[in-house]
């Protein structure tokens, strides 16, 4: 397997309902993960982009959280509608999507 150009981590942490930190699981993170995987397949980018589900990335109240390396850019509050924009602008176009990034005081 070749080393990917980009690696996308999607939080799929699921905590019990009412947990004080909340979780990305309460905010449709599984659908976001599935959309990332679908886009990789649709665009045939298996050798360029790797997508991995992960546990908590930290800012639970801003979830679903998505972290892209090697740039170390964290996106928050991601919906399935945001995934294509992240693909087009960041993963393919190498330009972070500023409007979807978590605030600098959270990740910066």
Characterize the structure shown.
- Helix content is 26%, strand content 18%.
- It is built from two helices and four strands.
- A four-stranded mixed beta sheet has the order 2-1-3-4, with helices on one face.
- A hairpin with a 3-residue loop joins strand 3 (66-69) and strand 4 (73-75).
- The mean pLDDT is 93.
List keywords for this structure.
Glutaredoxin, 108 residues, alpha+beta, four-stranded mixed beta sheet
Provide the fold topology:
Layout: E1 6-11, H1 29-43, E2 49-54, E3 66-69, E4 73-75, H2 80-92
Parallel strand pairs: 1-2
Antiparallel strand pairs: 1-3, 3-4
CATH topology name: Glutaredoxin
| SSE series | EHEEEH
Number of domains: 1
CATH superfamily: Glutaredoxin
**Alpha plus pi helix count:** 2
Unreliable runs: none
N-to-C CA distance: 32 Å
- The largest beta-sheet arranges its strands as 2-1-3-4
Quick rundown:
The protein has 108 residues and is an alpha+beta fold. The protein has helices spanning 29-43, 80-92; strands at residues 6-11, 49-54, 66-69, 73-75. Helix 1 crosses helix 2 (80-92).
